[in-house]
Amino acid sequence: MAQHDKPYVSSKFAQLEQLLPTPNNYRTGSGAPGHEYWQQKADYKIKVALDEKKHILTGAETITYYNYSPDNLKYLWVQIDQNRFKKGSDAFETRNTRLNDGPNFGMINLVVGQASEWGCKIKSVKDKSGKPMKYVINKTMMRIDLPQPLKAKGGNMTFSIEWEHKIVDAKKTNSRSGYEYFPKDGNYLYEIAQWFPRMCVYDDVNGWQHKQFLGNGEFALTFGDYEVAITAPADHIVGATGELQNAKKVLTSDQLNRLKKAASATSPVLIVDQKEVETKEKTKASGTKTWVFKAKNVRDFAWASSRKFIWDAMKVKVGNNDIWAMSYYPKEGNPLWGKYSTQVVAHTLRTYSKYTFDYPYPVAVSVHGPIFGMEYPMICFNGGRPRADGTVPARTRKAMISVIIHEVGHNYFPMIVNSDERQWTWMDEGLNSFLQFLSEKEIPLQSWAKADYPKTYPHRRGPAKNIVRYMRTDPTKIVPIMTNSESIPQFGNNAYGKPATALNILREVVMGKELFDHAFKTYSQRWYFKHPKPADFFRTMEDASGVDLDWFWRGWFYSTLPVDMSIDNVKAFAFSESGKTVEAPAGGLKHKAFANKKFNGLRERLSKGFGLRLTDKEMAMLKPGKYYYSVKVKNIGGNIMPLFIQANFVDGSKQLVKVPAEIFRKSPNQVYKGLIFDKPVKSFQLDPNEMTADIDTKNNTFPRAKKGSKFKELKEKKEKSNK
Fold first, then answer.
1. Over the stretch 455-466, which tens digit does the pLDDT of each residue have?
2. Which of 70, 170, 335, 647 fits a 20 to 30 Å CA distance from 17?
3. Where is this region: Disordered (predicted)?
């Protein structure tokens, strides 16, 4: 029995209290942080060296951890993400490998996992005085046992870790970081992330978030301040999270002058140009340089290094903040990257800030290398490479622009609005994909994009019609959005596409742009530099808009039911002095007659029995010249949505009527919508503009199109065009 055929229950409009956590002093019923909300802090001082010959990172870090929780902590949990790539890891061992008729990519993955020499080697863990501390490594997590509990509400401690690991080959591992080798010139490009032992999150909802890192579920991280010294080959250019502290030591005088010029430029300025890069590719200097970066109030730190990097930059004004927009890319990325990357970074900062908050960090960097799309505070790794001859297919250009918007946009979600990606992918990917769609809509307005996108930009995720194919999937073979990140089939559709579409529908169809934008900005600013959970988002969107959305969250986020509405029947009526059937001209619907004489008798009885009196205006609507319709809409898919009913009149004009979703509140399976018009209707159509992700539009019209009539219409159109 399908969901929509079950006996009626009012569950679709039931409130979500039974599903959402009980509000408390930490997280309120309004969705705002409570008056006793707390979160931890972890500061890092790190020294790391890159060995280009052996592809090894060697590092030492000092962590100062602050316990603002109400709990004394007897141990600390630290993430060791590189152990995901260790031989025998859960990520390798739990991967499904299907071997069919011959070798395939699954076989390569199997071989890589079995032969892996990767993984993190912990050399030491010591307290502030240098005394060894007891620790236990559990796959991608390490527990550090404390000699005495770390005191609640303000206690802090400092300890150090030394480690090393081999850098993974990004193309072999399908990872979020690693190196790329360029055989033509024999050089490497490094994108380094998840590279150092990092504190797990301890919060009021989960305690320690130490779910193992398997690959899909990304990261739960604690805010802190970073000082990182990166020692790399002397001719490398290094880009990283944060601001460069020793530019005079690592840059040439020419590069410093160009950087100064870029600070006041309105278009990107080359700090390192292609000619310099091509010289370095051949000479490969010996020796090293150490680049020092600082970053405040970030949840992570990533960096990139290569002698192949061209570097351009400009500053962009966002609110009262002057922000560096920068790009690093090898010559293989030109001409595409030099033309677009930094401009797209600047565009993203402007549009996202409009819908959330002014970008607070001093830098936003886009790096081109082996990772097609991955995000970190102030820096992201992006793909989109021209062909070897320098030509750029339109598809490549579009993919590159979209991925930069998406990854730079992640600075807002989850780098600043710091959700738990290990648990809820949609809270960062879904929200970010939605904002990406809004940002993409403004691309044709930008001067740098007009030549390629004079009117529109092709969108992948966001428009309702783009999710229809996924929503046609058998509901028993997919999972709700509210599913843990590691347990999602069709990951991209579930965690990116469906929530982005849901939010777009919520904005354009359910709430309206004004109410939605205010509520979304309220959520963004309430949880700015904090750790929100799904309930905080759901509650804030309702609290700030005054719109009851529990039915929407239930349908789109807690179920797999699709939208499929059908006009099953229409009854048409008109008033007639004679009481005979009213025929609409030129093929309109047949209208049954209401005889005025009979209605007047009803009105008199109601007036005497119930005191019902109709005004002259109301009476005017009950006379010849008015047309009444009862449109029967059946909810076949099971997911509740507002109705958009278009009346196509006999005279060729149209009128679109929006009906709130609450029409289904007492009858979720089918409803009857009454309509009154001044002229007769020829036909009705549901959702003519494809705004609700209805999976079957063939049942959206009444009368139904005759079988074969669409084919005949297309055939006649083709024959006419041929003539």
1. 999 999 999 999
2. 70
3. 693-723
State how far the Cα of 319 lies from the Cα of 364, in Å rounded to an integer.
Answer: 15
Measuring CA to CA, which residue among 692, 685, 604 is closest to residue 642?
A: 692
- Which amino acid is residue 101, in one-letter code? D
One-letter amino acid of 712: K
Average pLDDT over every residue of 522-536:
98
Segments making up each domain of the chain, as ranges: 3-22+469-557, 38-222, 565-722
Residue 48 has which token pair?
Answer: 């790391």
- 312-333 b/e (C-beta count within 10 Å ≥ 16 → b): bbbbbebeeeebbbbbbbbbbb
Residue labelled with tokens 């299907």: 98
Average of per-residue pLDDT values in the chain = 91
- In whole angstroms, what is the distance from residue 619 CA to residue 626 CA? 11
Q: Tell me the pLDDT tens digit for each residue of 2-44.
A: 444 444 445 899 999 889 999 999 999 999 999 999 999 999 9
Strand order in the sheet with 269-272: 269-272, 310-318, 321-329, 363-368, 379-382, 373-376
Q: What separation in angstroms does the CA of 670 have from each of 161, 165, 341, 637, 639?
A: 63, 61, 50, 11, 12
CA 543 remoteness from chain centre: 22
For residue 202, list its beta bridge partners. 208
Q: What is the DSSP string of 203-272?
A: ETTTEEE-----SSS------EEEEEEEEEETT-EEEESSEES-HHHHS-HHHHHHHHHHTT-SS-EEEE
Strands 303-306 and 237-240: antiparallel
Query: 47, 129 in Cβ contact below 8 A?
Result: no
Type of residue found at 297 = N
Backbone torsion region of residue 434, taken as left when φ is above 0, otherwise alpha when ψ lies between -120 and 50, otherwise beta: alpha
Q: How many CB atoms lie within 10 A of CB 182?
A: 15
Paired residues of 530 in beta bridges:
417
